[in-house]
Specification:
187 residues, 59% helix, mainly alpha
Amino acid sequence: MIVAPDGTLDDPSLLLNWASDDEPSYRYGFYQAAYTIAVGMVNGTGPRSEALAYPMLWCFRQFVELSCKRIIRIGLELDMFDDTLDAASALSRHDLHSLWELAKPVLESVSLGDIESALFRRVNDIVAELQHLDPLSTAFRYATTLGGTPSLGSKMLVLRVNRLVENMDVAMNWLSEMIQMLQRRTC
């Protein structure tokens, strides 16, 4: 068994509290998994494997998607959407472009009117690139589309892992800070 009943921990084990609403840890876990693989590639302590690039990119993308969904949930809680049904229904999909477009006005409410800051533009560019490569959260997970064509197209792509790590670190810090600022408004 990979998950044992309470009280039967082997070493090494993690105690997972499935009943808790620990959204930040859940969201951050995807970032940390991808970051661990990426840093291993960069500093030579881990394998430099094309096979690991796809789950790494998917985990980074998943972190961004879950961050957008958290921002939208807070926006719904704060009654920040004219069309609450549209915002709520977006939470059940993986369309990164739609999620980001819904998250941006909510972010603007805590960015002190500086939504066009250098940090925002950098995160916006990261989201745009992830959206371009994997708009519906399938390209990094599946080698081919349902139609049988390569998910990432037929051209060779060069993954700049150093830049990826730097940019995702900026995205993680900025998004996490914005979420914390938004959460303070719900108290």
